[in-house]
Amino acid sequence: MTQQGERRDRGGGLRGFAWLLALSIALLALASWLEGSAAWRHPLRWLETLDQSAALAVLIAAAQVVAGMLAILITVVAIVVQLAATRYTHRVTTLFVRDRVNQAVMTLFVLTTALCIWLALVLTGEVHDAPIVPRGGFLLAMGLMTACVIALVPYFGYVFRFVSPLSVIRRIRAAALNEVQDAVTGDPHAAELAVIESIEELEDVARGAMNSYDRAIAMSAIEALATLLTDVERLRGALPEEWFRVDDAIARDPDFVSMSQTALEEVARTRSWFESKILRQYHALFIDAVNSARDVAGMIAIHTRRLAELCGAERPELVVLCQRAFNSYLRASINGSDVRTAYYVLHQYRMLGETLLARGDEPAALEVASRIRFYGRLAKASGLPFLLEVAAYDVAQLVELAVANVTARDALLDILLGIDQPGAQSLPGVRRAQVQLATFFLARGDTATAQRIVGDLAGERRELLASVRADIEREVSPHYSEIENRGANFSYLAPERRAQLDALYAMLGAAA
Hints:
It is built from 23 helices and no strands.
């Protein structure tokens, strides 16, 4: 995608140059025809009558024009590039200087100026009767000067596209990926340093964009980090052993220097310094996004889940890293009292648990459910009880998904039934999730499992259970009434399961 974008930018500039060149040639031919009256006049016939003094004057004027255009070009481009570098990242300047199109345009202006100057020097001196005008050189100089003038418009367009933040993000990511590819046959140590610098620059772009309320740019930088990590994972088998080694340069990196020796040894053992680096950048960006850029925080959670789903089957240690990232996201959201962000993160965390269950990784799925319960309890203790109700709903969804696996189902059900801390007053949303799950088992004819839930509900206050039932029966739409990412109505119950409420509450009455 990055290479296609660069080719598209260059192709657009070349098409613009070609159109302007064709139009210039057409205008020259038209002017020659008009000057030639009725007969066609060759557009280059004027070269035969050009004398030495006239050619010298034209070349001097051409050299001055091209040199002046070059000065203006450098001034304007330097201002534009510096403004972009100040706002986003200093890497813009380096990328600009290394770009081949920029080098080619600057070279064209410099060579044209030099050629005009040298041809003028050739013509300087005594004027002879027989002209000594180097007509081929003169024609080449005029052609290059024309190219310089025509190239200005498409080149300015190319420059402004080049320094656009989305283009800069693409180029930084492409440069980092090239460094990783070079590590296969080149110097892994140099590639590590270059890649680390690129990762930090992408983080700087994302943070600067969040501070400027540029959501699209921040999300693009976050996506660039995710796609870079995914591409490197695909190259993992071809990378040399030196790439994975935690050497002094990595150990001194700001993201690793404060690590304990035990934690650093674990990174070295799992050969995951690159993944840890990006996830730590995500964590830092997530903290900045709490309460101020919830959509950016949600995007970080989405990419963390996708990473675990994409690579977790072959690398269980990466799943552990992503789980730790989710735990950190939830901690940051709760500490910042950002209910909405934690609500979205719990959704992505539960979706990861669903993937782990479908993959057959029961221990990892149980760990996800346990952490959802833990952070739900932490949120309630922090004055955010709604998040515990969300946690109960999410764990209940995992129980339903694991219904065919008795061992995982029972373990997840234990987590759900113990989601309220002992001695604490139950929340309506927690009891609602448990009632809804009981109807799920009753609809399947699994009375024994439903009876386990009934046993936990039997000691609950009758008025709370009646309120839960009324809440469920009142909702007729599966969709939430407001715009939000989940879109699910927690109180809704499908008709086939709603029909089990009478039987469930009869069991509750008998148990009481």
